[in-house]
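// run 5 | inverse folding | seed 20
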């Protein structure tokens, strides 16, 4: 799994891993049904039911996911939309009032991002705090890029929205399947890209290389396109993780985890578009 928010989750992880987790849980608690398993009436902890009770039970309307407090796509959409709205508001305020605070936003977002990614249960307060810090970072860094590549922010936003929609359509169409081979390939590619980005950042910050470092010129454009492709592939894997969580009937509270995971990938995708557009502008 590419996104640590999903890969480190006991409910969004790979099918094999989830099966093992559920098996272990039921070994320790044999009376506890797995996610998505309907309770068995008539015996055990519910006791025996008479004919009238059984008749009333079967005539009652079927319970929805909202009634059972299970994860739904609507939950994920609402929470993701809310976090994105908060991000945009904070980013706009930072752009207008204090763009120089982007370094604080970057550090705070990194710390809170790691904490949220490795928490077993989601914390809405920490996820909202992460969104605020990332809003400060995105607003400030967007101001910096836009100062020497006017219009870069608008183009990056459009590119992000179009890529998100394209990845969702590909996933929904079934033309791109998330298989173990696909996720392994993506993981290897992401590790390689992360190592390259870290080395390049160190070389630029220490003054060994100027400008965008190894990401300048035609090579930088190629690397930028590859990074955007990796981010798009990560979105598809994120969609698959969310779909798996909904189908398995995981608790509704994990909509926060799903929204956080999508936000992380979307911010990365936006930043890659922003950097690529700036590289194009600098090469003119």
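// decoded
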């Amino acid at each position: 799994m590419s996104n640590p928010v999903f890969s480190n989750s006991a409910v969004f992880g790979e099918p094999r891993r989830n099966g093992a987790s559920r098996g272990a849980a039921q070994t320790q608690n044999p009376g506890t049904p797995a996610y998505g398993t309907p309770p068995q009436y008539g015996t055990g902890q519910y006791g025996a039911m008479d004919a009238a009770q059984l008749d009333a039970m079967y005539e009652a309307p079927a319970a929805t996911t909202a009634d059972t407090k299970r994860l739904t796509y609507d939950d994920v959409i609402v929470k993701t939309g809310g976090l994105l709205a908060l991000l945009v508001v904070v980013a706009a305020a930072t752009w207008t009032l204090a763009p120089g605070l982007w370094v604080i936003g970057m550090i705070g977002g990194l710390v809170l991002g790691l904490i949220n990614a490795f928490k077993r249960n989601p914390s809405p307060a920490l996820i909202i705090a992460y969104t605020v810090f990332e809003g400060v970072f995105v607003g400030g860094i967007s101001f910096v890029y836009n100062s020497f590549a006017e219009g870069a922010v608008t183009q990056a936003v459009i590119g992000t929205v179009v890529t998100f929609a394209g990845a969702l359509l590909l996933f929904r169409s079934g033309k791109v399947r998330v298989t173990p081979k696909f996720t392994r390939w993506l993981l290897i590619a992401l590790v390689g890209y992360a190592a390259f980005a870290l080395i390049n950042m160190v070389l630029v910050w220490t003054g060994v290389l100027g400008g965008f470092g190894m990401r300048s010129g035609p090579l930088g454009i190629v690397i930028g396109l590859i990074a955007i492709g990796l981010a798009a592939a990560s979105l598809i894997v994120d969609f698959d993780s969310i779909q798996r969580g909904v189908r398995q009937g995981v608790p509704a509270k994990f909509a926060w985890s799903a929204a956080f995971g999508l936000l992380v990938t979307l911010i990365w995708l936006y930043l890659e578009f922003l950097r690529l557009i700036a590289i194009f502008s600098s090469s003119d």
